Amino acid sequence: MTHEKLLDAYANLTVHSGLNIQHGQQLLISAPLDAVPLVRRITEHAYKAGASLVTTIYADDVTSLARYNFAPDDAFDTAPAWLFNGMAEAFKGGAARLAIAGEDPSLLAGQDPQKLSRANKARSLAYRPALELITGFAINWCVIAAATPAWAKSVFPGLPEAEAVAKLWDAIFACTRADLPDPVKAWEEHSANLARRTAFLNERRYRALKYSGPGTDLMLGLAEDHVWKGGAGRARNGVICNANIPTEEVFTAPHKDMVDGTVCSSKPLSYQGSLIDGIKVRFERGKIVEMTAAKGEDAFRSLISTDEGAARLGEVALVPHSSPISKSGIIFNNTLFDENAASHIAVGQSYTENIRDASKRSKEELSALGANSSLVHVDWMIGSGELDVEGIHADGSAELLMRKGEWAV
Amino acid sequence: MTHEKLLDAYANLTVHSGLNIQHGQQLLISAPLDAVPLVRRITEHAYKAGASLVTTIYADDVTSLARYNFAPDDAFDTAPAWLFNGMAEAFKGGAARLAIAGEDPSLLAGQDPQKLSRANKARSLAYRPALELITGFAINWCVIAAATPAWAKSVFPGLPEAEAVAKLWDAIFACTRADLPDPVKAWEEHSANLARRTAFLNERRYRALKYSGPGTDLMLGLAEDHVWKGGAGRARNGVICNANIPTEEVFTAPHKDMVDGTVCSSKPLSYQGSLIDGIKVRFERGKIVEMTAAKGEDAFRSLISTDEGAARLGEVALVPHSSPISKSGIIFNNTLFDENAASHIAVGQSYTENIRDASKRSKEELSALGANSSLVHVDWMIGSGELDVEGIHADGSAELLMRKGEWAV
User: Fold this and answer.
1) Each residue of A146-157: pLDDT tens digit?
2) In a domain? residue A111
3) Which pLDDT score, from 0 to 100, does residue A239 have?
């Protein structure tokens, strides 16, 4: 297939399997400027599917960087709260949400960590009203990616730009199944497989997961009344959507106060323009009490210092080492892909969908069950072909879930 | 000078003479996608001038058109109220506003007039909270233009695209004085000239203006306590800005109930993607009671039917026929330029700055003085080298203001 046809198939997949746009729904897209051709195709498919209005907010790496180079020092506590409040208003009014990733993973590398930390905190705080509607699945939403030159060059540093971009697009189309004859049908089947896996885990009701591997010896308690999720889910507006394309994970909420031991990252993490690699942390009663990183240690330290919840876990996810993303052998420097190459954990905010009847419980009740609260939610990879994972029952007995990174059940 | 240097001078002029960005101010830009290189230079100058955060909302003609081609019929009463409410919130918080024009003047030509009318009405209604803060000069704002391929091709239909774009940029740089050695200083002098002209007119306190020319015989009453404005003005946040670059006009508020006679347009008008030309209307007691147009008559009829105020005047402006824009001999198909080539009038909303102490008066008081209220504000050109304008004093005596389109005073 030509690139144009694949791009169109990917756009169609996004609108139907990802967002499942409903007649009369508005759609808000955020995208990098380099994604204009993809945005145009998605917009066309969204209108054909019945969208009433599609609005895209473009981000521009050049002007993002210009701020760090030219803005006064006192500028960095400012965030576009007006825009995020507007987005929250749109979601409350029923609009669907698409985020297209594709940013330069190292755009802000080398910038003043103080400025970065202040800017990220201001942004996280301003974004919270909109983010809570997203993480709480008030509306159908989806995150996908577009191959931009800066991202492609970070993934394939040895290739000329055009070749790197083409190769990254091909990897995206393959990992998202957009290159199959009927991508929408392929996603239906894939979702059914993930649903069978979550049904098994939800039936088991483990008290904790135990991780063993090189540099990792971790007992990770699960939140009470936790719910495993994976693949397509029904948002509170009744629409079934796939929040991530691709997605290979099943995930739930850890108990924010019951994580103990050491764990190290198995793949690099791109966070707000900084590349973080070789993370090694030790937890005590849920909190990170020691940390080092081979690269980007300041950025990771800044991340987990954002607030009290940023040093505790908000998500745990299991992904087989043989996932299509892992098999591609590519380090994408982008969480949307890399998190689907390996089992992972996330510091920060937990998802309300991972606690049973979360919408009927107060924040205090959710916290008592073990749900975490934070301005941030950042995944990092801990899975590999050498990691074993056991499920620990309430009576302390163990059941092997993954052996050397593959499902054992 | 190279195009790059001219573009940079134009960006610098916009930030300093147009917006006069203050330290710590946010800046909201709206721009067509083709204006990315200009937006990047403006953003850099804004940060250097002390802006805390610059956010650009890009518009894309391709997706705007896709809506008309693919969206369901019931989509067209929807507007992005969430975005406009966010913008209003930003302005209330002190953000400055830059609009970059450059849209394809005939993008929506030939689309269903019913859909256009519904979409425009929904948009105008949703935009009103933000627009009132702009027209009421709550904050410093500015409108400029960028030469886009679609616009350039409409201005120079006989030229290849790249040549048309280059020629339109050169015209923009010349008409905005960006090609002078010190554009910021040139604007200071130009503003001083316009200030002398408005001081003269404000001292005269005419009751009405009388227009005579081919096809035009119009007695245009002025609002009580009207104020002539022109060039730089002080916004209510204390910042002196030039709301239009270029601007050659002096303007005030007509009396919405005291306009009688006939007037015809002297240049085409681009309105929401439709080109309107050869307008001829008759007013009775302020209201348009008869209208024809040689081209785009449906679009003009739809415009003046938007609401009660859309068939009455909200602005009257005097521009000498020898203005730089007029002398360029170019019909720009864009109001920002064409309105500065000729004297003009606008149907719809009047500017509160054109009524003395408007902020201290109620809407009812403003209306009683003659100020007009509407969801729209659209300029159209009536000036030419054959138009005479007289100022009519309270006692009925006349003073010749313009003879054959040139200032006589």
Assistant:
1) 999 999 999 999
2) yes
3) 98
Parallel/antiparallel/unpaired status of strands A216-222 and A254-264: antiparallel
Nearest CA in chain A to B22: A72
CB contact under 8 A, B70 and A48: yes
Q: What is the mean pLDDT of residues A331-355?
A: 92
pLDDT at position B335: 84
Residues 6+ apart with CB under 8 A from B182: none
> B89 to chain A: which residues are within 8 Å by CB?
81-82, 85-86
Average pLDDT over residues A293-315: 95
Chains A and B form CB pairs within 8 A to the count of 134
What's the average model confidence in pLDDT over A98-111? 92
A157 and A287 inside one domain: no
Whether B200 maps to a domain, the answer reads no
Q: For A220, list phi and psi in degrees, rounded to 5.
A: -110, 105
H/E run at residue A314? strand A313-318
Residue in the structure block whose two tokens are 């270029």: B246
Q: What is the pLDDT of residues A158-194, one digit of tens each?
A: 999 999 999 999 999 999 999 999 999 999 999 999 9
| Whether residues A31 and A148 fall in one domain | yes
Q: Could you give the number of structural domains in chain B?
A: 2
Q: Is the pLDDT of residue A114 over 80?
A: yes
Q: Is residue B182 part of a domain?
A: no
Confidence of residue B252 (pLDDT cuts 50, 70, 90): very high
pLDDT tens by residue, B167-215? 999 999 999 999 999 999 999 999 999 999 999 999 999 999 999 999 9
State the CATH number of the domain containing residue B143: 3.40.1830.10
Tell me the C-alpha distance between B63 and B32, whole Å.
12
Q: Do B78 and A26 touch (CB under 8 A)?
A: yes
| Interface touch B57/A57, C-beta < 8 Å | yes
B209 and B273 assigned to the same domain? yes
- Please report residues of A whose CB lies closer than 8 A to that of B26: 78, 80
CB B353 within 8 A of CB B137: yes
Residue of B nearest to A68 (CA): B47
Cβ distance A72 to B52 less than 8 Å, yes or no, reads yes
- A51 to chain B: which residues are within 8 Å by CB? 71, 75
| B chain contacts of residue A67, beta-carbon cutoff 8 Å | 47, 53-54
Q: Residue A66: left (phi > 0), alpha (psi -120 to 50), or beta? A: alpha
8 Å CB contact of A70 and B36: no
Residues 6+ apart with CB under 8 A from B366: B352, B355, B358, B373
| Residues A274 and A165 occupy one common structural domain | no
Answer yes or no: do B78 and A33 touch at CB < 8 A: no
Residues A293 and A376 in one domain: yes
Residues B13 and B151 in one domain: yes
Find the mean pLDDT for residues B4-25.
98
Determine, for residues B82 and A63 on separate chains, whether the beta-carbon distance falls below 8 Å.
Answer: no
Residue A20 counted as domain residue: yes
Bridging pattern class, strands A313-318 and B141-145: unpaired
Q: Are residues A220 and A75 in the same domain?
A: no
User: What pLDDT does B23 receive?
Assistant: 98
First CA to last CA distance, chain B:
37
| Chain B residues in contact with A43 (beta carbon < 8 A) | 63, 66
The parent domain of residue A266 ranges over 205-228+249-407
A82, A85, A92: which to substitute to probe chain B, counting the most B Cβ within 10 Å? A82
Q: What is the mean pLDDT of residues A30-55?
A: 98
What residues of chain A lie within 8 A of the CB of B24, using their CB?
72, 74-75
* Among A175, A196, A219, residue at a domain's last position: A175
Residues B152 and B275 in one domain: no
